[in-house]
Amino acid sequence: LVYKLVPMEGVRYDMLGVAADGISQVRLVLDPEASKVPKSECDNIYGFEWVLSKDLGTIDGHSYREAVYTAPKEYPEENTPSVSVEATLYYMQRMSESHSIGRKSVPVKIEIIRPPVVFIHGLGDKATCWYDLDQKLVNDGLYKDGINFRLDYSATNTSSFSTNYPRVGIGIRTAQRRAKQKGFVAIKCDLVGHSMGGILSRLYVQNGGESNNVNRIITVNTPHAGSEFGDAVMAHKIIVGNLTRAFYWNLNLDAIRDLAVNSEAIANLNTIIGNGENHDIPVYALATESNLTLPA
Fold first, then answer.
1. Directed axis angle between helix 196-206 and helix 167-181, to 10°?
2. pTM for this prediction
3. If we measure between CA atoms, which residue out of 123, 124, 181 comes closest to residue 149?
4. Which residues pair with 260 in a beta bridge?
5. Which of 56, 83, 51, 88 shows the shortest CA–CA distance to 71?
6. Contacts of 104 (CB under 8 A, 6+ apart)
7. pLDDT digits over 96-148, tens only?
8. H helices within the chain, ranges in order?
């Protein structure tokens, strides 16, 4: 018997495994071209059991024809781009209800990766700001190359929150597609947002997003309660507007207005709690401190 991994839905093509997000699944199906397929009456002659080699995920299968593997919720504490688990089919001929002979096994390898990361830049920035970190994660052997995605919304990076947060969904779908091209089913992604990118990540989830496709959110130096810089700019927006015109800057003040401490956008950010499906998404806020020493 020979098995292959295929997606749960859509076109059947060979997969390698899943992302550790607790819901991604693959089907283990019998390959009729490479197997000596038992006759249908063998269902009553043989006993079958699927067993995992490690406590990583779950396997559901009551026949030699097919089983379904569900990913573990967390990736093991290992500094590797992937880990493997074997789903083994044990089968034996039943001589009676209490006696079997000829126990045999067929192992099927399943590869597990971390959920893909979608990097989201901040105000006035672009996707290249994440290049070094993205490459380091791959070079350090934590992620496979070509799966994580650096979302770029530089064309609207000074526009309002409401303009930009839906673009997070584009990043997620792109990362899911990249994972599938590498042979992995990844339903959920990790969102890593710098500054305004962290706010856009939260708004995407809090405003519904797409059902169940965010694993966790990590914000880096994100002004969750607003930025006094935004208040200062908006208090002197006439001067700022004159400067932008004088230097031919194409500066949209909508994002800066939204970032102000007392803005309606910040108030909504910290009031909207989203639907019940999103309440169990963990959010981690990272912040740095820097001391600026001026020369005497």
1. 90
2. 0.86
3. 181
4. 227
5. 56
6. 90, 91, 92
7. 555 555 678 899 999 999 999 999 999 989 999 999 999 999 999 999 999 99
8. 42-45, 131-139, 161-164, 167-181, 196-206, 228-235, 237-246, 254-259, 264-269
